[in-house]
Amino acid sequence: ILVKDHVYPAAVVVNKDHTIKEALELLRQKETDAKIIYFYVADEGNRLEGVVSTRTLILADPNSKIESVMEPSVVWLEENQNLEQAMEVLSGHRLLALPVVDKERRIKGVLDVQLYLEKHIDVFKKQENQDIFQLMGMRFEEGIAKSPWKSYQKRMPWILCNMLGGIACAVISKYFQLVLSKVIVLAMFIPLVLTLSESISMQAMTQSFHALKKHNVSWHKIFSRTISEIRTAALMAFTSGSIVGVLSLLWGSTLGVSLTISMGIVLSVIFSALIGSCVPLSLHLTRLDPKVASGPVVLAFADVITTSLYLFLATLFLL
User: Fold this and answer.
1) In Å, what is the CA distance from 226 to each residue of 206, 230, 277, 281?
2) In the chain, count of helices (H) and strands (E)?
3) pTM above 0.70?
4) Residues 6+ positions from 295 with CB-CB distance below 8 Å
5) How many other C-beta atoms can be found within 10 angstroms of the C-beta atom of residue 130?
6) pLDDT digit string (tens) for 104-131?
């Protein structure tokens, strides 16, 4: 959604050499029903030079020139900006309206606070949908693509990424088949261990996205937020590991097997949270789109690391 699709014409654009009396006369001649919050000042080429509030014009000397009362420092929007960015600028500067200009700074219209009140919920709902689609390795627009072939071309690479992760897990399981054949209960809990790791990794990845979306965020803050997320994941890991370890005793496992399962869950969940936090940051540093790529990549890495750790610990302690 672009700004240029929601602008309305500026009611009155004045020249800095006009007097206030002439500016008000221009307004009367327009006989416009449009809301007039600010008068915008432009040169002969309609390029934005300043702004004057309506209150200033009413209270100032009618014979004063616009140049003497205008504010030359103007916050403006470019017509090709998206509407979400415009909402942030409106909210951040606490202005009632903003001029919209083209690349040459020619005035194209006005965007006012009323649009913010009407549209900001829809914009952020769409952004939320966009985030959900991108976590799955696709863009929102691709989810509603009319051409199956084009949709296939965009989405299949990330499906292949997940397939490679699954194949890698199968190879790892083959390598550790000795411990799996001797301790059958380990295989019973593999799906649960993978589910826990994938869930935690996706939660950590989402937290990284929120950190990256904030304005003027420092890498120190991102690092601190990542450490905090790892600590939270560690608490969830110990809780999950303890519960699953106790439950595994109901399947006839020994205390050693139960402790191994618990330790495997704890380590795999913590490592998965680390992966979920770091992959978006790494992609961001390499100037790749972290949202589109992170979901499938994080899941694939989480599966491989979890399977490796779980079966390695089992081999180390049970054989």
Assistant:
1) 11, 6, 6, 10
2) 12, 6
3) no
4) 134, 135, 136, 137, 158, 202, 205
5) 16
6) 889 988 887 666 555 554 544 555 445 5
**Sorting pLDDT into bands at 50, 70 and 90, what band is 287?**
low
Q: What angle in degrees, to the nearest 10, is found between the helix axes of 113-135 and 184-213? A: 150
For β-strands 38-42 and 13-14, DSSP reports them as parallel
Pairing between β-strand 97-101 and β-strand 77-78 as defined by DSSP bridges: parallel
- pLDDT at res. 236: 93
- Which SS3 state, helix, strand or coil, does residue 23 take? helix
Q: Are 19 and 65 in contact (CB under 8 A)?
A: yes
Phi, psi dihedrals of residue 75, rounded to the nearest 5°: -90, 125
Question: 106 burial class (0-12, 13-18, 19+ CB within 10 angstroms)?
Answer: middle
**Which residue, chain included where needed, has tokens 């399977």?**
307
Strands 107-112 and 97-101: antiparallel
